[in-house]
């Protein structure tokens, strides 16, 4: 064996031995946690303590799980004249507490992602490992101290990016790029908005940022927790495995709809939807609620058994005005008013007897019939459903000067349900009810919220999240060019305003890791027609191919394209306009192909264009783009989304003429 090769083999053997001992150490850490878990009940003292200790320990055991298909570390750093560290998915220490692997989120690990020949940050050598099925197979060294740097020409990075995609989304800890890392490690106080072209790693960045913040602010975020908001459940399923693979198992993932407590049983015509998602609805509801508060017209006269106490009308008017000026949520305002009424009564008692009445007296007075009657008349309790019910029954009063006549007609119930309970609320109503709930009471806030595909949130949906992140920072991820909802954002400044974080920084990502260059160039032709100001994507991928086929028999061509795709590795998706989906699936099945839908994980998926957002497949076959464009108002944006789902190969099959910009 030539000397250089044998030297490499020796080093790889040494690294593999380190991997084996790290795995063994992680197993011991896990066994230790399991043993504590088993005895937790004995040491905790009381039942509550045992339960919370048990929860913490079982979480610890889960966090220490080892995935045999990925190595525990993927890099190594040698600092000039100092120690060296293996960088991996989590801390692993030996029995004496010495580090065998450093967590990728630790401060020292930062240099693994950020050091360069021009700014080596004290790093002499950076090593990256290649691996396959959990075994180390190669490594690449960069002697930053000698000016060596591979950058994006790293073979290990290229292999990782070009690896066929099957199943759910994977993490990218081993190959996070410097511009991505800057976003991942942004300060917890900072709200960032990432405008990224398709496949630039926005979703990956958001998930890794969540993991990073949980590492750095464990205690703070365990109390208030982190929320990931995604566009639909299929997307959430697709990304669900990433955080657990990074050792984070406690993160809530939800669509905006699922954040709302209202059961959706009805629907709206498009005109009504548009009005209900408009931010002016917040003003309408606010005004509707203000009208519940009245000017007191009578005094309160209340007896406590011993005496009759009296609060004159003028005093009550002042009390109501004061509370109104303080602008508390309505429900809190009612309680504040009650407390102030009772405090005035209490002062009368003190003035008379020189003694302060006890808590029981205060409680009794607060509940007494005259005080409750005063509150019900002037500051009545309102439920969110009742408020929205009143507005939709007749918007005229609350919406005057805010909505046009036509807009009021669009949302007015043609046949009002008999009561709020009898209403069949639509998805847009659920958002209004949440707005009303936020006017009536305070909602608990998350510690950090990551919002994916944020361009599609309506202003009112943004406010749903704003109410849950008043004291939190946000990571907003999206692409204005991929906005397909009728209310999709055209400018991030608007979204940030509705989210309660005006002026937050907007950071572009333009280097694509998914879509091959030829496919990116095709999709980029659509950009000028989309009416948004975003930078065109570039791609790191020179591989892959694009084929546009003008055919007479679309079905036969689709079957042919799927058969051809199956000759290669990886997943295959056929994407078409919704009405064509069942027919295409039937055609493929009739040809003996095993076809799945977005719900199940088969190698071949037939997917309506409306569900493709955020997903990716090795081989994508887009059928009849003209139909996809014609299906909805923002059809060209939808086509842009669909064309950018391909990781390696894109076939476009059409019988009708291609849409103009293509
Ligand atoms: N640094 C990286 N190293 C390796 N793979 C990466 C890196 N960044 C992103 N990728 C991969 O590129 C693909 C696209 O990433 P992701 O889905 O996060 O992009 P996106 O910007 O959210 O895309 P879209 O806007 O189309 O939804 C994924 O397969 C992801 O794993």
UniProtKB/TrEMBL annotation:
GO molecular function: 3'-5' DNA helicase activity; ATP binding; DNA binding; hydrolase activity
UvrD-like helicase ATP-binding domain sequence ranges: 175-516
Coiled coil location: none
A Pfam family that the UniProt record links to this protein: AAA_19
GO biological process: recombinational repair
PROSITE patterns in UniProt: UVRD_HELICASE_ATP_BIND
Chain sites annotated for binding ATP: 196-203
Signal peptide: none
Lineage top rank: taxon: Bacteria
UniProtKB keywords: ATP-binding, Helicase, Hydrolase, Nucleotide-binding
GO cellular component: cytosol
Name recorded for this polypeptide: DNA helicase
Organism: Rugosimonospora africana
